[in-house]
């Protein structure tokens, strides 16, 4: 049987046989409509009889409390924060994603480590160091990168959950208001994602379009994965 | 790889397996240097308050894998690095660390993570000016640990590695693997190796020599008392020269 593919070292102590499930990652900046698309995708796949497991960023029971504490109280310094998120990611990968893939599920991951790296690098972390940290990560079957212009993001944020401190990068930028800060911060994030597109083989999806059009585009991109899975 | 220390401070670390007596030795160095009027700062492995709740939770529910264990320890170190060790070094302080990145390398590799991967995690840290490695035969360390206190803890005994059913046996096998990793690192990171079976005061004598050598010709940040005394001395010289005029 074929081997599982990892970015660098993987988990040398694990002896996983080829995992029968499929890992589909949805990536993109805040306000791009990721969660909406993940939900639609899940419904569609389940309608067609696939067993789907979904997992988001920062949902590990192990680190949840620590990360919440850090957001409310003293913010962690960049390196500490970066390693904290890496712990969380590794925990979810080993204790949720891999077991689900082993059980043959289609795993939808709302974000993967790419967002964490983008976030870290914008905060001054060495990009090479950050990539090596995630050398243990499983290479997804497909990464769907939802990409939208800043103007689109702003209409969605204004008509959605509103601006928020962290999504606006207020912790690092010297702006006096959330709007200006959001614009600048998300532009940095888009730059980082664009850098990663080739490197990590992202499938860029135009997310400026309507929810339905975007969903249709996503379905087209994942069809080959589903065909392979059905074989 | 570790970065060269380009700060005005000095970094001295002690390493060794549990029961090697390194904490006793570093405690004596701390008191000795403080009495000599040096500015000294002590930092201990796995002591960051911010990371504590997560480590506790993971240990209690036994959900750590070698990778997550390694990462949370690195997060703990990073917190101390950014908020304690690095600022103190920059201020010209002697930082004494009870365990350093090498503990991470030894334990994590013994648990099965990739050696290069874990070395990258800590690559933001400095190569210490002095690494005191307290070398002790496995039997001695095991005897010291198992005779002196209560039951070994799950991760401490390396029970997650499933090496043995019995905690003491597992502990021995785990420590043996760690010793091997320390041996490999001795050259790579220029450890000063000390025979930790010798009497405490004899070891301390040797340790002090090594510390003196590492600090030779170096002047760090004075402590407030010294700083005040120096200030007063400068003032009186100034007054003297003024009264001569």
Estimate the strand proportion of chain A. 5-15%
Radius of gyration of chain A: 18 Å
Determine the N-to-C terminus distance of chain B: 59 Å
Number of strands of chain A: 5
Mean pLDDT over all positions of chain B: 92
Q: Can you identify the CATH class of chain B?
A: Alpha Beta
Q: What name does CATH use for the topology of chain B?
A: Rossmann fold
Helix content of chain A: 40-55%
Q: What about the largest sheet of chain B?
A: 5 strands, parallel
Mean pLDDT of chain A: 90
Structural category of chain B: alpha/beta
The fourth-level CATH homologous superfamily of chain A is: P-loop containing nucleotide triphosphate hydrolases
Q: How many distinct helices of chain B?
A: 9
Percent strand of chain B equals 5-15%
Describe this structure in words.
The complex is a heterodimer of chains A (231) and B (245). Chain A contains eight helices and five strands. Chain A has 231 residues and is α/β, with parallel strands linked by helices. Chain A has a single domain (22-162, 202-226), classed as P-loop containing nucleotide triphosphate hydrolases (Rossmann fold, 3-Layer(aba) Sandwich), CATH 3.40.50.300. In chain A, strands 2-3-1-4-5 form a five-stranded parallel sheet, with helices on both faces. Chain A is globular. The two termini of chain A are 15 Å apart. Chain B has 245 residues and is of the alpha/beta class. In chain B, helix 1 crosses helix 8 and helix 4 packs across helix 7. Chain B is elongated. At the A-B interface, helix 2, helix 3 and helix 5 of A face helix 2, helix 3 and helix 5 of B.
Describe the structure in brief:
The complex is a heterodimer of chains A (231) and B (245). Chain A has 231 residues and is an alpha/beta fold.
